[in-house]
Write a structure and sequence with these properties.
The complex is a heterotrimer of chains A (231), B (287) and C (327). Chain A has 231 residues and is an alpha/beta fold. Chain A is 36% helix and 27% strand. Chain A is globular. Chain B is mainly alpha-helical and 287 residues long. Helix content of chain B is 75%, strand content 3%. In chain B, strands 1-2 form a two-stranded antiparallel ribbon. The longest helix of chain B has 31 residues. Classes of the chains: A alpha/beta (231), B mainly alpha (287), C mainly alpha (327). The interface between B and C is large, with 39 and 42 residues.
Amino acid sequence: MEILRVENVTKRFGGFVAVNNVSFTVNRGETVAIIGPNGAGKTTLVNVITKRLEPDGGSVFFDGFNITRLPPHRISKLGLIRTFQTVSLFPTLTVRENLALPGLNAGTTSDIKRIAGMLGLEEYMDIVVAKVPLGVQKLIELGMSLLLKPKMLILDEPVAGLGAEDRLNIVKVLSGLKSSLNLIIIEHDMDVVFALVDRIIVMDKGSIIADGKPEEVRENKLVKEIYLGVE
Amino acid sequence: MDLTPFLVQALTGLYKGSLYWILALGLILIFGVVRVINFAHAAFYVTGSYIMYTFYNHTGNFIISLIMAMVLTGALGVALEVTVIRRVYKLETIYQLLATFGIALIANEAQKLIWGKGVVYIPIPETLKGGVSVGGVILNHYMTLIIVAGFLLFIATILFMNNTVTGLRIRAVWRDPVMSEALGINTKLTYTLVFFIGTALAGLGGALTVPLISVGPGLADYLIVTAFIIVVVAGLGSITGAYIVSILVGVFSSILVLTIPELDIVVLYMIAALILLFRPQGLFGER
Amino acid sequence: MFLPPRLRVLIDGNIIALLLFIGFLAVIPLSGHRFYMYIAVLIMIFGMFAMGYNILFGYAGLLSFGHGLFFGVGAYSVALFTLNVYRDPLVGVLFSIPIALLTSILVGVLTLKHGKVYFAILTLALSMIFWSALVKLRWITGGTDGLTGIPKRGVLVDLSAPTTFYYFILVFFAAIMLGLYALNKSRYGLLLRALGANEDRLPFLGYSTFTLRMIALTVSGVVSALAGSLYAVFYSVVTPDVAYWTFGAEPLVMSLIGGSSYFLGPLVGALIFVSLTTAVARFAEYWMLLLGAALLAMVLFFRGGLLGFLESLVGGLKLGVYRRWRF
């Protein structure tokens, strides 16, 4: 059964077509990666789905609702949650206050404790976010998203800029989540992608050029040429 | 019905609108390129008026006084850019607004200290005292000059921005300062240059105003609000839009004075508010 | 301290300082010194104005140049109401609340859908519209002369005795300060601070930034208008000056002087501002010059305000010190 359906979505910046007539469907329980070279349109696609950007054409359906015309906060309330490539938190608030923000909508104090424990954030709770290391900020971003009790979570490069240890930690957390919610991951780190997902969508120049199981995509000649071959 | 009073007001509105346009142009250039809303812009405009007044009283030469008003006001603008404004570029927008607001307050008071609390004016130059008849109404040569100068300034700005290397440089920084820097454009110098052009234009407008309207304390407060409304209604950053809206505001407000003198400004502001309610990006702005 | 955890969360340095200050204000009339009472009343009125202003400026990160509008709406509502409808200062002051609420919503609809730069410009423009209307609608507002004879003695309450009036103001002051403190500690306080910290992120957490901004503006507008209405009753006179943009910039300067990222910053700023203006009244002619210079100095050198400066003196001792006095 489907949870997300993207139909003929297009986004232009002036004359440049960043996302070109993209369509795909994600079923409940699927964990999907969107990969592709820089500038392929992955982040723009996510921005259009979550309405950070207005699409120039096409429709998006989530959990039975047409969300194409909804404002971002309504989309979040439906359970479609995203993170940002460059960490976007509330730098002047403490870690606890950051984690409490989604709690005002959905979670409770005990939820915050549980998530903080799972991500190993306890020791930072009363420190202002601007003063904690980047790796921790990425974890807070993840924690904040989880506290919103998402039905689907879209992660935009969750391990970019992190050291090996933090990467491992996040992969561990994510594989624990797979069973309870739908994940879409945009990631360059192929080890992370192959460790987590059951399906890979490959984008290049704004279009989907391959879509299938990881092993199929790995063998796809076109993908090898323009993406994996470069690595 | 005798339409003569309306024609008189429409012509008055044309020159008033042309002066608004000169004021608004500098504001837009500085906002577009330097990305600072210059609250002190009208204070520079009035400074131009006062400098014009002082030089004219000493030299009696209209042209020299006009040039001095432009150059000195521009120099003052550069001095402030280098000492104050430059230090707030990297801060949040809110602090840039605060800094220019502080400058506006200081400038207003300083003007009162230097030129007194009364109003100042100078006579219209002898050679421009005559007039031409437009539909039975005499249009003063000086007013014609301002209307024509405003229009030429509009054409010149468009040509300058589209056809010169400096114009290209300014447009590049306007579009994308980071990329421009990467391409080797000296953004710092461009900022200072644009600040000079913007404030010198304000000085020019102010200088041209003194023979027509008595200049005194409080004028800047009124002008900056009018300029903001013009720029916002036109759409922040639209040069052509600002010209058209300036002229419309000039003409419209002059005719309102005739029809509902009690509420002229209020009605004008209301219309502006309504336009923004239904077209937040302004009449000529892009979303 | 041996307090249950729930209470411990609610009590911090701010509330202790605030209660001590209210207590101090309460004993001033005992001195019998009229001048001190006069200054204290001004500090309370401008303290409310600045604290209300800072909900928008310090919390939500929105710079308004038009708060004279709200102050003026409060002042003129009480004046028009007591002079034309029902002659009582208390009812008049309370009447200004719904008027301020409606005004805030109207202003919000017009200004909040755009960016921060637009907000600053549009609030300035709206306050100037209001100001010109006050000057031009002479038959209602009395034009530049304003309205005189706002009564202290009314049908229900009689505030003509200075001490009675003093405590009347103090009750409003205490109620508003405690209310703002409760807001600061509530979930909305946190959301408003989040709005100032990173408003672009909030929609992706399920919050409408427009709604949150509207809440901030409404609280700010109503508190400012209440200060304005008390000001009008205090002087028995109201003129269009209170709606002029330079007047609207005063709470901004107070917030900056005290420190806009501290809960009590605006109140500290109002204290300094009022004491200073009263002390240097003979320099009143150059007042705006000083105001501008102070503003520039704050922006360039002391963005944390006085409280930020003090904190940097004692700071570094313990991270907790930083948090205790902030919002």
